[in-house]
Specification:
The chain is of the alpha/beta class. Strand 15, helix 25 and strand 16 form a beta-alpha-beta unit. 48% of the residues lie in helices and 12% in strands. The two termini are 50 Å apart. The longest helix has 28 residues. The protein has 4 domains: 136 residues, 3-Layer(aba) Sandwich (Rossmann fold); 219 residues, Rossmann fold, CATH 3.40.50.1910; 119 residues, Syntaxin Binding Protein 1, Chain A, domain 2; 122 residues. InterPro entries: Sec-1-like_dom1, Sec-1-like_dom3a, Sec1-like, Sec1-like_dom2, Sec1-like_sf. Belongs to the STXBP/unc-18/SEC1 family.
Length: 642
């Protein structure tokens, strides 16, 4: 069970618990070692599959009695002696498929679980189908699950898996052809997802959101949904809230809904931390990455639960990760050598001795000391080392070919308005990848307080001469002009950014290592808060009582209060400005949700802020995780419409 730093359950742990109960025929999941599970089939739609896939691997589904899992739209044979558990979205297409299954009596019993609430008219359609098919007695459960979000980490969730045609994307929100009806539907869907997140946690948050954008409309809708549910005594989803809040010192969560336009540069930034690099370069998706291995594509699951290196170093700078892999490899080799010596000393050479060794090692763990205690553990350790060696080697190759370390350092200088080693135009001319060049140009434009028309024209010519699409720059120019020359949406504060060079390649310069880092800069990012983390900090940090803090910090916090709406679903009326400013202590539970797409850099930055501040539980959420290339594509499409 995943726990937050205070021992309370995380959002991911609670969603896993809900899914296990759902699969277990809506009964609390018990230890399968104690009793035999009920064997059943699991039927999902695409969204249900995307929710379950990062949380319950096939092995765990089998332990829960799932013998077969299928998509609801696939061709399925009747299994009249087996119960079926459904986990689908309550749309017209799925309801029609369920009606068909009921009429045909495909399964022994039906357990119908809907990802989000099923409307009354659709429920009546299902009831009619059950009557006509004589299947009323076979329908055992019809349950609204409130699980329409995807938990990727203990402290990270998204509402949808990324897709080009996503109705929740930054492109969809800013597309001038998006109708009012489509926008209303998008706002409703996001509010539904956030409501489900709150219901899964079992806590009613205090909500903060900036004024005059989609985030404010979502906050209004979410506030109303929470109020409506709290008034419904029969179906109140937060009846045990006080019990759950007790795990976090009776502190209610603060949910800050932010708009992507508040910080575009972070979405484009070349990254230098492990998880963000895997997302940017290798296309990390649903905690999985596809990699070439011995001539074929292999899917790697990077959230298997017992991968210590990933857990400890996913947010570390890449050179530190390479050193950690090298260290694990040396530990593995020493463990293997010690086992081989013991095998030889006991006259157990040869492959036939493995079974005997496994039992023998149980009695000789004291001799092995801190090394692995069994051959299966040793093999698993080797598998994880091979996995990360393969990923890190591929990343290293991309770093060297595209000079990602140089680009990362350049962008850090641009963001903190530092001096460059050469004119930007000459630095850009050395970049070979078109997307890399466009990212640098956009970051330079976004981070400049003032930029002349001649300089913009020069940047545009550089892009044209390199056959790079300048449509994204055109859109950002338009956005900046709308926001009053950089004083509104597009004013991004990245102060404190930068890098430091450290000597960390002692082990890695060995020619026998796969990680020869020659030619790669020894960079570690300096600690600093990104714009949305600064927003969270200003909302959550109590005003300083010191004289020094009163002048600088108080003015920033006053500005933040003026720009943000405040919603408390538990209060009859909206609070006064004076009561909103009363923050006696840092909240124990903080959630940041970004409308229009998020990224791993922002997620890692927020988690690091929470750790430094001592916040007990910090959670980052977004409509979807978007890689820099995917975000550039959205900006280019928007610019192409101008």
């Amino acid at each position: 069970m995943s726990l937050s730093s205070d021992g309370g359950e995380t959002l991911r742990a609670r969603q896993i618990g809900a899914l296990r109960q759902l699969v277990n025929l809506n009964e609390p999941a018990i230890n399968t070692m104690v009793s035999e599970p009920v064997w059943k089939v699991l039927i999902m739609d695409k969204f249900g599959q995307e929710i379950i896939s990062p949380l319950l691997p096939v092995k765990q589904l089998r332990e829960l009695g799932v013998t077969l899992h299928m998509l609801v739209g696939s061709k399925r044979e009747p299994l009249p002696d087996v119960p079926a558990v459904y986990f689908v979205a309550p749309n017209d297409e799925n309801v029609e498929l369920l009606c068909n299954d009921l009429k045909l009596g495909l399964y022994e019993n039906f357990y119908l679980n809907f990802i989000s609430p099923l409307s009354r008219p659709r429920l009546e359609i299902l009831a009619t189908a059950a009557v006509n098919g004589g299947a009323i007695s076979q329908v055992q459960k019809v349950v609204d699950q409130y699980l329409n979000f995807i938990s990727l980490e203990d402290d990270l969730f998204v509402l949808k898996r990324y897709s080009e045609a996503s109705p929740m994307s930054y492109y969809a929100i800013n597309d001038p052809s998006t109708s009012d009806t489509q926008m209303e539907s998008m706002i409703e869907s996001i509010a539904d997802g956030l409501f489900s997140m709150c219901a899964t946690l079992g806590l009613v948050p205090v909500i903060r959101a900036p004024k005059d954008n989609a985030a404010e409309q979502i906050a209004i809708r979410l506030d109303q949904k929470l109020r409506d549910n709290l008034r419904d005594a029969r179906n109140n989803l937060f009846a045990f809230e006080s019990v759950r809040a007790g795990q976090l010192n009776s502190s209610r969560p603060v949910l800050i809904i932010a708009d992507r336009s508040a910080d575009l540069a972070t979405m484009l930034h070349h990254t230098w931390t492990y998880q963000a690099l895997v997302h940017d370069v290798l296309g990390l998706d649903q905690n999985r990455v596809s990699m070439p291995d011995k001539g074929k594509k292999v899917d790697y699951d990077l959230h298997c639960g017992h991968d210590r290196l990933w857990t400890q170093h996913k947010g570390s700078a890449f050179p530190l990760v390479a050193e950690a892999i090298q260290g694990d490899l040396e530990t593995y080799r020493s463990s293997k050598d010690e086992i081989e010596k013991m095998r030889h000393a006991m006259g157990m050479d040869g492959t036939d001795a493995d079974a005997a060794m496994s039992s023998l090692l149980i009695d000789t763990t004291s001799k092995l000391g801190s090394t692995v205690t069994s051959l299966p553990q040793l093999l698993e350790q080797k598998r994880l080392i091979d996995l990360h060696t393969n990923i890190a080697s591929t990343l290293l190759e991309a770093i060297k070919v595209r000079k990602l370390d140089v680009l990362f350092e350049l962008e850090q200088k641009l963001l903190q308005k530092g001096s460059l080693d050469a004119p930007l135009s000459s630095l850009l001319s050395e970049i070979t990848d078109k997307d890399d060049m466009l990212r640098i140009v956009l970051i330079h434009y976004l981070s400049s307080d003032q930029i002349s028309k001649s300089e913009v024209e020069e940047l545009r010519n550089l892009l044209n001469n390199s056959n790079a699409d300048g449509s994204a720059l055109k859109f950002v120019e338009k956005l900046r002009s709308i926001s009053n020359l950089g004083r509104g949406l597009i004013r991004e504060d990245h102060s404190g950014a930068g890098t430091k060079t450290v000597s960390m390649f002692g082990k890695l310069l060995d020619k026998s290592s796969k990680f020869v880092m020659e030619g790669v800069k020894n960079l570690v990012p300096r600690k600093h808060n990104l714009p949305l983390t600064k927003l969270v900090d200003s909302v959550c940090t109590p005003p300083s009582s010191s004289v020094v803090g009163m002048s600088s910090m108080a003015s920033n916090q006053t500005q933040t209060e003026d720009n943000l709406r405040y919603f408390d679903p538990k209060m009859m009326h909206q609070p006064s400005k004076e009561s909103m400013k009363l923050r006696p202590h840092l909240p124990a539970d903080v959630i940041l949700f970004v409308v229009g797409g998020g990224n791993y850099v922002e997620y890692e930055n927020l988690v690091e802020w929470g750790h430094d501040k001592g916040v007990q539980r910090v959670t980052y959420g977004c409509t979807e995780l978007v890689s820099p290339s995917q975000f550039i594509e959205q900006l280019s499409r928007l610019g192409g419409q101008l």
